[in-house]
Specification:
The complex is a heterodimer of chains A (about 120) and B (about 950). Chain A has about 120 residues and is mostly helical. Chain A is built from four helices and no strands. Chain A has one domain: Helix Hairpins (Orthogonal Bundle), CATH 1.10.287. Chain A is elongated and about 60 Å long. Chain B is mainly alpha-helical. In chain B, about 70% of the residues lie in helices and about 5% in strands. In chain B, the strands form two sheets. A two-stranded antiparallel sheet of chain B has the order 1-2. Chain B has a two-stranded antiparallel sheet with strand order 3-4. In chain B, helix 18 packs across helix 23, helix 19 runs parallel beside helix 22 and helix 27 packs parallel to helix 31. The chains are: A mainly alpha (about 120), B mainly alpha (about 950). Chains A and B meet through helix 1, helix 2, helix 3 and helix 4 of A and helix 27, helix 28, helix 29, helix 30 and helix 31 of B. Chain B: Keywords: Antiport, Cell membrane, Ion transport, Membrane, Transmembrane, Transmembrane helix, Transport.
Chain lengths: ~120, ~950
C-alpha cells in the first residue's frame, strides 16, 4: 500500500510542477492546487499510514499520529486561501495588463492563431 | 565601576545636542557639544588610577548567550589609552572646528557626525565582545564616510568618501569573517576568552585564515600598503576631520586591532612575515611619496601612512619591547600629527591655499603658528627633546634586536634608517618650504595669524610634544606601562624612557637620519627631476575604473540571469531544490525500511488508478480549462477519500468541503479568464519541464516511500495521553488545534483573514470587461435561476446549518470542529448564492463578512487572553462537566470559544472571497458604481 501511496504523491508532484512551469496563470493555479494535494498527502504520510485507527479516544485499539493531521488540516484551509489569492491575482493581472501570461506580457513571437481562439474579448 | 556599561553611550546621546543647539551661537553650540565627551573623559580618567594599578573593568549585559551575543565593555590599559586619545583630541577638534568651519557650513550637522564617529570609535576600543567590536568598527566606516563627504558639493569629497568607505567597508567584511572563524574556533566571542587562548588559536588549523582575514581588516583601516591610497584621497574632508580621523583615531583603529589581538595572534612566523613586510613597505613608501607632495595635507597624509607602517612594523616584530615601542609611538604620533593637521588647516584657512609651491615665507605673517608647526614637525622628524624622538629611538633599537630575517636581518635597521632620512626630509620641507624659502606666490588672501582660540588646541598638543619629549616618565609612564601590559596580556617588560641612553647604535642611526634628511632636502631638486620622469598614475582613476568594470560585469550577469521570465526563475529554483534533495537521497542505501507494509486491497488500487488517470488528464487537457477543472476536482475527491481511508476523518471532511469551495472559486474565476490556453511552449521546453517535473516527482515519491516504511518515533503520544485529561476532548486532532497548538491555529486564522482582506481589496479595484460569450462564441444563457434548485436549496439551508452546528459542537470529541463547520456553513450559503443570485441574497442575508473575520480573530484572541485573568498562560484552556435536567451531563470548555472564533473567521474569509468574486458578474459589481 505504501508503494502505491508514494507513487501517487510523486505523480501529483510531477503533474503539479509541470503545470506550475507553464506560461499562463490559470495553468499555474491548477498546478499549485495539484502540488498542494501532493504536499498535504506527503505531510500526512509522515505520521505513517494506518487503517481503522482514527484518533478519537475510545474508538479503536491503536491510534494514528494526530500531529500531522492537525498540521495538514490547517494547511488545507490555508492552501485554499493561497489558491484564492493566486487566482484573484491572476484575474487582476489580466484586467490590468490585458493578458494572462505569468510575465505580464506575451512572449516575443505570440502564436497569433491560437491567441485569437483563446481570447474571448 | 558600574557606569561602564552606559559610559560609551554618553557620546551617542551627545549627537543630538549639536543638532538642537545649532540655532544658538556657534560658541554655545561648541561648548554644549563638548559637555558630554568631557564628562565621559572625566569619568574614564577618574578610574585611571585603578587601571595603572593593573586593574581591569568589565561589564556585560547578556542578550543571546547561546550564540555569544552580548553588550560587553572593558576598560583596561589599552582601552584607556585610546579612550583618552579619542576623547581628548576630540575635544580639541571640537574647539578647533568652531573656528575652522565657515558660516555657510552647518556646524550642528558637522558636530553631530563628529560625535557619532567619536561614539563608534569609543565603542571599538571599549568592546569586550568580537561581534560588538565589529559592529562599532563598521559604524566608524559609516560615520567617517559622512564626515569625509561633509562638503558633498565637491566631487573630490564625494569620491574620496566613497573610496574610503569601499576600502574600509570591504576590509570590515573580511574582519567579520575572520572574527566569526576566530570565535567559532575558540568557542566564545568574549574578548578575554580569545586573549587567554592564544596558544590554542595559533595551533589550530584555522589560524592562517583567521590571521589573513583579521589583518585585511586592520590593514585597510590603517591604510597599509597596498590599501593605502584611500587616505590621501580622504584629505578632501574638512581639516578638523583629517586632524581627528586621519591622525589620531580612525586610522589607528587598525593598529588598535592588531594590538588588541596581539596576545591571541601575534608572535608566529606567518604574523611576522605579513605584518613586518607590510609595515616596512608602507613605512618606506609613505615616507618617499610624502616628500614629493605639493599639497600640505597630502604630505601629512602620506607621512601618516608612513608612521602607521612604522607602528605596524613594530607590532610585527613580535618582541615585547617592540610592542611597548608601538604603543608609545601611537601616543606620540597622535599628538604631533593632530597638531600638524591643525596647523596646516590654519595655514589653509588664513592664506587660502595648501599648495607648497605657492606657500613660501609665511614666517613673516604668522610667526606664532610657524613656531608651533616647526616644533611639531621636529617631533615628526624625530629630533631630540621631542616625543617623536623617544619612540623613534625605541624603534631603531628594536630593529637592531631582531633576527627573524635570518642572515638578511641587517636589512631592517638599514631600511628603517632610510625611512628616517625621508621623514627628516619631508619634515624639513614642511618647515622650510612653507615658512621660509622666499615670498608667497599668488596667494588668494594675505596670510595672517588665526583667531586666538583656534590656536589653543595646537598649543596644547605642541606643549604635550615637548613635555612628553622632556619628561616622558612623568607624563606618560603609567599610561604607557598599563597600555603595553594590556596589549601583551601580561606584565610589560622593563624598559627605560630616558632621553639619553649614552652613545649607542640607535643614536647613531638617528644622527644619520637627521644629517641624511637635511642633505636630501638640500638636493631635493635632483630628486624631483628624477621623480618627474615617472608617468603619473592616479590611484583614484584606477579605483574608479575597477569599480566601474565590476559594476558593468555585475550588470551583465544580472541581465543574463534576470530576464524577467517567471518560468525561468521557477525552473532554476525548482532545479536547485531537485539537485539538493536528490543528492542527499544518494546517501540513503536502501529505499524500503523495516516497517511492515499494509497489504493492498482492490478499493485502494481503484482509487490510485482513478487519481493517476485524472491527474494525468488534468495535465493533458490543461489547455481546455473547464475540462482540467473537472479532472482536478476528481483528484481532490480521491485525496479526501484517501484521508478517510487512512484514519483521518477530520482531514477527509475538511478536504471535501474545501474542494467544493475551490471548484466554485475556480469556475467563477474562469468566467473572467480565457477559456483556453494557447499552445505556446516549444517542444524543447515541454521536454525540459517534463524531465524536471518527473525528476522532482520521483525524488518526492522516493522520500515519501522511504519515510513511510521506516518506524515512527513521534511526540504525539503526549497529545494522545493528555487530550482527555488536559484538553477535555477525545478528538485529539481537534484538541491539538484548539488547545495544545492553539497559538499556531490563531496564527493560521489570522493569515486566512489577511488573505481574504487582500483578495477583497484586489477585487474591489478590478477593471474587468464582461465577456458576452463563452470560449466557443456562444452567448451566455439569460435564463432565470432554475426554480427547482432554488426551492430545494432554500429548504436545505436550515438543515445544512443544523448539520454544521452539530459538527461544530461535537468537534471536541468526534471528527468535526470549527474549521469543518465553517466550511460547511460557507458551502450552504454559497449554494443560496448559486440558486438565487446575488441580488436576491443581498436583500435577505445581511452579513458583513469583514466584521465576521474581525470578530472571529478577536474572539479567538480574547479566549486566549481570558486565561490570563485566571493566572494561566496565554490560550490555556479550561473545561468542566455540568448536569442539567432533561439534557443530562454536558461539557463546557473554553476551547469551544476559541473554536467559535475559528468558525467565524473561516466563514467570513470564505464568503468574503466568493461573494465578492461572484457579484462581479452582477449589477452589484463595484466597478460599475465607480464608472457610472
Amino acid at each position: 500500500m505504501e508503494g502505491i501511496y508514494a507513487f501517487c504523491v510523486g505523480l501529483l508532484t510531477a503533474c503539479g510542477i509541470f503545470l506550475t512551469l507553464r506560461g499562463r496563470s490559470f495553468s499555474v493555479v491548477i498546478g499549485l492546487t495539484l502540488l498542494s494535494y501532493a504536499v498535504n498527502l506527503f505531510l500526512f504520510a509522515s505520521g505513517r499510514l494506518k487503517l481503522n485507527s482514527a484518533v478519537v479516544l475510545g474508538q479503536s485499539e491503536q491510534y494514528s499520529d494526530p500531529l500531522p493531521q492537525a498540521l495538514v488540516l490547517t494547511a488545507i484551509v490555508i492552501g485554499f486561501a493561497m489558491t484564492a489569492f493566486a487566482v484573484i491575482l491572476a484575474m487582476r493581472a489580466r484586467a490590468d495588463l490585458g493578458n494572462d501570461h505569468v510575465d505580464g506580457n506575451l512572449p516575443a513571437q505570440p502564436n497569433e492563431a491560437s491567441n485569437r481562439s483563446g481570447g474571448n474579448q | 565601576m558600574s557606569s561602564l556599561i552606559w559610559l560609551p553611550f554618553l557620546p551617542l546621546l551627545g549627537t543630538l545636542i549639536p543638532l538642537l543647539t545649532a540655532r544658538f551661537s556657534r560658541t554655545t553650540c561648541a561648548f554644549m557639544t563638548a559637555a558630554l565627551p568631557a564628562l565621559t573623559l572625566f569619568l574614564i580618567l577618574s578610574n585611571a588610577g585603578d587601571i595603572f594599578q593593573g586593574e581591569r573593568f568589565q561589564a556585560a549585559i547578556p542578550w543571546i548567550p547561546a550564540i555569544g551575543l552580548e553588550l560587553a565593555f572593558r576598560l583596561d590599559g589599552l582601552a584607556l589609552l585610546f579612550s583618552i586619545l579619542i576623547l581628548g583630541i576630540g575635544l580639541l577638534v571640537i574647539l578647533y572646528a568652531r573656528y575652522y568651519l565657515s558660516a555657510q557650513d552647518s556646524i550642528g550637522k558637522f558636530y553631530a557626525y563628529l560625535i557619532l564617529f567619536m561614539f563608534a570609535m569609543l565603542g571599538v576600543v571599549l568592546s569586550d565582545n568580537l561581534i560588538q567590536l565589529w559592529f562599532f568598527w563598521e559604524l566608524t566606516s559609516i560615520s567617517s564616510f559622512l564626515l569625509i563627504s561633509f562638503w558633498g558639493h565637491k566631487a573630490d569629497a564625494r569620491k574620496g568618501a566613497r573610496m574610503a568607505l569601499t576600502i574600509t567597508g570591504a576590509g570590515g567584511l573580511a574582519l567579520l569573517a575572520g572574527l566569526l572563524i576566530l570565535g567559532n574556533t575558540v568557542g566564545s566571542f568574549s574578548l578575554q576568552d580569545i586573549l587567554d587562548s592564544g596558544p590554542f588559536i595559533k595551533d589550530s588549523a584555522n589560524y592562517p585564515v583567521i590571521v589573513v582575514l583579521i589583518l585585511l581588516g586592520a590593514f585597510t583601516k590603517s591604510a597599509q600598503f597596498p590599501f593605502h591610497f584611500w587616505l590621501p584621497n580622504a584629505m578632501a574632508a574638512p581639516t578638523p576631520v583629517s586632524a581627528y580621523l586621519h591622525s589620531a583615531t580612525m586610522v589607528k583603529a587598525g593598529i588598535f586591532l592588531m594590538a588588541r589581538f596581539y596576545p591571541a595572534l601575534a608572535d608566529t612566523d606567518l604574523w611576522f612575515l605579513i605584518v613586518t613586510l607590510t609595515g616596512l613597505a608602507t613605512f618606506l613608501m609613505g615616507a618617499y611619496i610624502a616628500l614629493f607632495q605639493h599639497d600640505l595635507k597630502g604630505l601629512l597624509a602620506n607621512s601618516t601612512i608612513s608612521h602607521l607602517g612604522l607602528i605596524t612594523l613594530l607590532l610585527g616584530m613580535g618582541t615585547d619591547l617592540a610592542a611597548v615601542a608601538a604603543v608609545f609611538h601611537i601616543i606620540n604620533h597622535a599628538i604631533f600629527k593632530a597638531s600638524l593637521f591643525m596647523a596646516a588647516g590654519i595655514i589653509d584657512h588664513e592664506s587660502g591655499s595648501r599648495d607648497m609651491r605657492q606657500l613660501n615665507g609665511l614666517w613673516k605673517y604668522m610667526p606664532y603658528t610657524a613656531t608651533l608647526a616647526m616644533v611639531a614637525s621636529a617631533s615628526m622628524a624625530g629630533v631630540p627633546l621631542m616625543n617623536g624622538f623617544l619612540s623613534k629611538e625605541m624603534f631603531f633599537t628594536e630593529t637592531l634586536h631582531q633576527a627573524s630575517l635570518g642572515s638578511l636581518s641587517w636589512l631592517i635597521p638599514v631600511l628603517a634608517t632610510l625611512g628616517g632620512i625621508f621623514a627628516v626630509a619631508y619634515s624639513m620641507r614642511f618647515i622650510h618650504d612653507v615658512f621660509f624659502n622666499g615670498e608667497p606666490i599668488n596667494l588668494p588672501k594675505t596670510p595672517h595669524e588665526p583667531p586666538r582660540y583656534m590656536r589653543v588646541p595646537v598649543e596644547i598638543l605642541v606643549a604635550l610634544c615637548l613635555l612628553v619629549g622632556i619628561f616622558p616618565g612623568f607624563m606618560v609612564g603609567d599610561l604607557l606601562f598599563a597600555a603595553a601590559s594590556a596589549t601583551l596580556n601580561t606584565q610589560a617588560p622593563s624598559y627605560s624612557l630616558a632621553i639619553w641612553h649614552g652613545f649607542n647604535f640607535p643614536l647613531l642611526m638617528s644622527v644619520i637620519a637627521i644629517i641624511g634628511g637635511l642633505v636630501m632636502y638640500q638636493n631635493r631638486s635632483h630628486l624631483f627631476k628624477f621623480q618627474a620622469q615617472f608617468p603619473k598614475s592616479d590611484p583614484k582613476l584606477v579605483f574608479e575604473g575597477v569599480i566601474q568594470s565590476i559594476a558593468s560585469k555585475a550588470g551583465r550577469i544580472i541581465a543574463f540571469t534576470e530576464n524577467s521570465s517567471l518560468q525561468r526563475y521557477i525552473f532554476f529554483t525548482l532545479g536547485l531544490a531537485a539537485v539538493m534533495t536528490a543528492s542527499s537521497l544518494l546517501k540513503l542505501n536502501a529505499t524500503a525500511g523495516q516497517r511492515p507494509e499494509i497489504p493492498v486491497d482492490a478499493l485502494s488500487i481503484t482509487g490510485a488508478v482513478l487519481l493517476s488517470i485524472s491527474a494525468l488528464a488534468t495535465v493533458l487537457w490543461h489547455r481546455r480549462r473547464v475540462v482540467a477543472l473537472i479532472t482536478l476536482s476528481v483528484v481532490g475527491l480521491i485525496v479526501s477519500l484517501a484521508f478517510a481511508q487512512f484514519s483521518a476523518p477530520d482531514l477527509a471532511l475538511t478536504q471535501l468541503s474545501v474542494e467544493v469551495v475551490t471548484v466554485i472559486l475556480l469556475i467563477l474565476a474562469l468566467f473572467f479568464l480565457p477559456q483556453k490556453t494557447p499552445k505556446e511552449s516549444s517542444p524543447r521546453r515541454v521536454v525540459r519541464d517534463l524531465s524536471l517535473a518527473s525528476l522532482i516527482g520521483g525524488v518526492i515519491g522516493t522520500i515519501c516511500y522511504a519515510l513511510m516504511t521506516r518506524p515512527l518515533d513521534t511526540i504525539s503520544t503526549f497529545f494522545t495521553e493528555n487530550s482527555k485529561t488536559g484538553g477535555g476532548g477525545t478528538n485529539v486532532v481537534n484538541v491539538i488545534l484548539v488547545d495544545f497548538r492553539g497559538f499556531d491555529t490563531l496564527g493560521e486564522i489570522t493569515v486566512l483573514g489577511i488573505a481574504a482582506l487582500g483578495i477583497y481589496k484586489l477585487i474591489s479595484r478590478m477593471r474587468l470587461f464582461m465577456p458576452s460569450t463563452d470560449g466557443n462564441g456562444l452567448a451566455w444563457s439569460e435564463d432565470r435561476h432554475p426554480i427547482l434548485l432554488a426551492v430545494i436549496s432554500q429548504s436545505l439551508l436550515p438543515l445544512a446549518l443544523l448539520v454544521s452546528a452539530y459538527i461544530f459542537l461535537r468537534g471536541h470529541n468526534m471528527p468535526g470542529g470549527g474549521f469543518i463547520a465553517g466550511l460547511i456553513t460557507s458551502v450552504a450559503i454559497i449554494q443560496q448564492y448559486v440558486a438565487h443570485g446575488v441580488d436576491w441574497i443581498k436583500t435577505r442575508i445581511k452579513l458583513d463578512y469583514q466584521i465576521m473575520i474581525g470578530s472571529g480573530i478577536s474572539i479567538a484572541t480574547l479566549s486566549g487572553l481570558g486565561s490570563w485573568a485566571f493566572g494561566h498562560t496565554f490560550l490555556s484552556s479550561w473545561f468542566d462537566y455540568f448536569y442539567l435536567p432533561l439534557i443530562g451531563k454536558f461539557e463546557l470548555a473554553s476551547a469551544m470559544i476559541f473554536d467559535l472564533g475559528v468558525f467565524l473567521t473561516v466563514v467570513g474569509a470564505t464568503m468574503l472571497i466568493l461573494a465578492n468574486l461572484g457579484q462581479l458578474t452582477t449589477s452589484e459589481r463595484p466597478i460599475q458604481k465607480e464608472h457610472d
